[in-house]
Predict the structure.
Amino acid sequence: MNTEQKFSFNSTSLDQSFNLGTKLAKLIHPPILIELVGDLGGGKTALVKAIAKDLGITQTVTSPTFNIHRGYEAPDGIHLEHFDLYRLSDDEIVENELQDSLASSNTIVCTEWANHFSKHMAEDRLVVECHYIDENTRRYDFTSTGPVSSKIINGLKQ
């Protein structure tokens, strides 16, 4: 059974990108891995901020570029783990932390710049390519890699 689904969305404002992230948040349930790849300024962190807000997280969500990892807890006990692997070339640095996050049943893991960490990624994950088009425009290309992420994409298409 082919579970790969695709969906693309063009955003012409930060509000549209935020609304896309909010819609995505309503479709995801832990445990899930969202792999965010693409251009600098492509909207990866904007999607994570929207997911966090929809989960009820009131902390300020920022890109963990220099920290590599930031964790947040929603009021209902769901954990949002946000990794940014842009500055890393050695996957052993975060391997255990990433594996622990992926093994938790109440965790949503959002990982930016995970392209070279694919051996640590969950087999069924939602891959989001974020493209910077111009100052106001972003294109988001979603790809599923299994049945759970396929259901999410089907929900995004509606």
Observations:
- The chain has a mean pLDDT of 89.
- The chain has one domain: 7-157.
